[in-house]
Each structure stands twice: as structure tokens, then as C-alpha cells.
Amino acid sequence: MRSESHSRGSAVIPRVRILTGEPRDGAHGLVPAERSGARALQAPEREAIFDIRELSVSYEGSPALTGVSMRIERGLITAVIGPSGCGKSTFLRCLNRMNDSVRGFTLTGSVRYHGHDVYGAGVDPVEVRRRIGMVFQRPNPLPKSIYDNVAWAPRNLKMKARLEERVERSLRAAALWEEVKDRLGKSALGLSGGQQQRLCIARAMAIEPDVLLLDEPASALDPVASASIEELLHTLKHRYTIVIVTHNMQQAARIADRTAFFSLASSGELRAGTLVEYNDTEEIFTRPRDPRTGDYVTGRFG
């Protein structure tokens, strides 16, 4: 495939027990990223929403991410884990071109969404972001009413038909409607942190995306609010393909169907993030193929 360069930013029951001892048989066999990214042999074939090939990113000539190849499949929650500075957020933002405005941003390789090159000539970044919604680490409601926060993007995108129904539907999908239906005209800044984050998720869903990208959406929340976000994501996976960056390995084990482990790789004096292992979540946390993955999930580093 050709390579193009672009310059342009209540408790939840655990599903997977995280490995706490030595990695089990096979965990120390080094597996190249392209092999570790292969689907489990017993998994049914799913449509690839994203097909990422040899993705590398640099900022003003300094490498941030190198050689990432993986498929992200429809109807699954995919978690991206790894130590700080290994390019997790950079990778996530590449999926909907949120890095375009970052000074010195350069991308090589390809990001294909439903077979179409996201960075291809003539592709409208606004349309990319409409289809691939983003929720950030800290809740960022607009200084407007609750209603206007959800209605803002549909209005700007000329999606004004039956707007009240759209707002209600989005708030219900975000499990927030019953809490705010009697104060839609009140400022969104008066909501709790967990409510604000669910409002941001409702805002992203209001323009009917296909994919939701979440960059550590619960890191700034208390455990109760964090649990509510996890429960919400479980309900949303049947409607959206979800990719979530998280530092919380227990969270990844609870909510994700597949997990990608990123770490830092050195090339001379330079260090850049790279994909080490990508597999079903249970495999990553109980039978990792790469010793670096086993070391990370058992807390030996990171």
C-alpha cells in the first residue's frame, strides 16, 4: 500500500481477571506487532471499521508513533493501554484527524475508514469528525444551557429537523435524560463532573456518528461517576464502535472486547510509541504473548 505524508492535533463486575503472577505458557515468546494484531483464531469475522497500516507520526521532526498496523472491528469496545508518553492519545486523534491543527504534525502510512483513506485528497475533515466522534479526558461542556450543548453541533451542521427529539434521544442514550429533563435551560456548568462527561457523550452522539473515540473519559472522575461511564459504554457498544484510551487496566479488563498495548521503542537516541500486542482482552491480561505486555499488566513497569 502506498504511504502518504500529511502535515497539519454503581460498581461494575470485572469481566477479566488481570494476571498477577508470572505470564502463563507462551507469554515470553516475542511476537511481531503485525502478528500480535491478528484476530483470535476462534473469533468470528467482523467488518473492519478501521484498517490502519504502518502508521507513523512525528511532531516537528520528532517521532511520536511508529509502524502501527491494526484492524478495529465493528460493534466492539477496543481499549488502548500503555505507559505515559507512548502515543496512545496521538493514535486516537489520528483516527478522526484531530491532530491536523497541531503545529509540525506529520503522518505517514494510512488510516482507512470503511475502506476510504481518512487522509486522502479531497476528504473533508469536518465530515470525518461528524462520523467519528470524540470525547476528551476532562469534561468540556460549553458555557451554555444543557439543551444548547447537545443542540450546538446539529445546528452548525444544518441537522435542525426535529431538534428537540434529537436532543432528548441523545440525552436518553447517555443515561442523563431523567436527571436533567426538568432543567434543560440551566447551565451545563452546574452539573457534576460525571454528569458533564455524560453530557459530552450525548453531545457527540447528537450528530449520529458511527464511531466514538474516548480519551481517558473517566480519569478525572470519582469511582462512582467512573462506574456510571463504564455502564454507559456497555450499553452503547451495540450502537457504536468504541475506541477508548485508558490508564486504568482494571477498567480496560472490565469493559473492552479487544485491547491494544502500546509502549516505547528506541531507535538510536530517539524513542517513539509503537504497538506491542493487540488481541482479545482476556488474552492480553491472562495469556500475553509478549513479555513486555506481561510486565506491564502485572505492574512490573509503567
Mind explaining what this structure looks like?
This protein has 302 residues and is of the alpha/beta class. It has a single domain, classed as P-loop containing nucleotide triphosphate hydrolases (Rossmann fold), CATH 3.40.50. Helix content is 30%, strand content 25%. It has helices at residues 33-36, 88-94, 125-131, 146-156, 163-173, 177-180, 193-205, 223-236, 249-255, 281-286, 291-297, and strands at residues 6-7, 48-59, 62-73, 77-81, 105-113, 116-117, 132-135, 211-215, 241-245, 258-267, 270-280. The strands form two sheets. Strands 7-8-9-4-10-11 form a six-stranded mixed sheet, with helices on both faces. Strands 1, 2, 3, 5 and 6 form a five-stranded antiparallel sheet that branches. β8, α8 (223-236) and β9 form a beta-alpha-beta unit. The longest helix is centred in the C-terminal third of the chain and has 14 residues, at 223-236. Residues 1-5, 7-15 and 17-41 have low confidence and may be disordered.
